[in-house]
Amino acid sequence: MLNSKTRETVVSYLFLAPFLAIFSVFLLYPVFYSLYLSFRSITPTTDLFNAFADMKFVGLKNYITLVNDFEFWWSLVTTGYYAVLYIPLSIGVSLVLAIILNNQLKGHSIFRSAYFLPNVLDMFVVGIIWLFIYAPHYGILDRVLTLFNITYFAEKGVLANEKTAMLGVVVALVLKNAGFGMILFLAAIQNISQSVFEAADIDGANEWQKFKHITLPLVRPIILFLVITGTIVALNAFAEIYAMTSGGPEMVVAGKTVGATKVSGYYLYRQFERMNYGDAAAISYFLLALTLVISYINAKVLHKKY
Questions:
Q1: pTM of the prediction?
Q2: What is the mean pLDDT of residues 206-231?
Q3: Which residues face 250 on adjacent strands?
């Protein structure tokens, strides 16, 4: 006969069992299977109709190939550029929206819902919409700029120009995700006691001084969270690149033709598409290790600083 504590434990495991089963099949198993694939490769003798089962063990060859692959290192450079643009812009837009909507403006609930709504849309759908906005000749952006005699985007648009393609992708992603950061900042700002601001008013502090010395320090945990999640978003970027640029436009760097927006997530997809499953698995583990290292450094540096 089970005692009450053991019975509660058994019941808890029974409730957890469906989730654990799904987690094991769709997440845990692929994690270890991709590690297994990273040490194997398709060879000329591999049966392509049974490729995964017939891949040959090659040891560390896939990782060594990766280290010597110029295109892979270029994808890391573009990923870093993507992160440098996305993270500060995303945090800045989210914080500005939260500060504006923290005031009791007329219809502020509607504005909060409107800014958060794009966050629930699929990135591929959002990317297609921005593809039409950025398009030359018939795109909304080009038509509006033409009214002001700005014709810089009339020939290629935004996404076919190597100087503006990455920024165009980042702006679309920032406007899609800003609602999520806005909600986090808004919750943090509204948890600040009004007595703190009243004490600052008595001391004669202006709005900028209150923001710099009260609001900003108290929302820094949210900034730390958004920096870490922004880093992960950059390293996993794929859908927006696939929908908007397919890694292009092409440009020449160090005598080699590369894609201006070919980030590491899209490069991994291209390897998988070419049936280089071992290389793709090795890239995914390299990116996993890189994500862990960068997240650890971010947490240490920002936590100590703030």
A1: 0.85
A2: 88
A3: 259
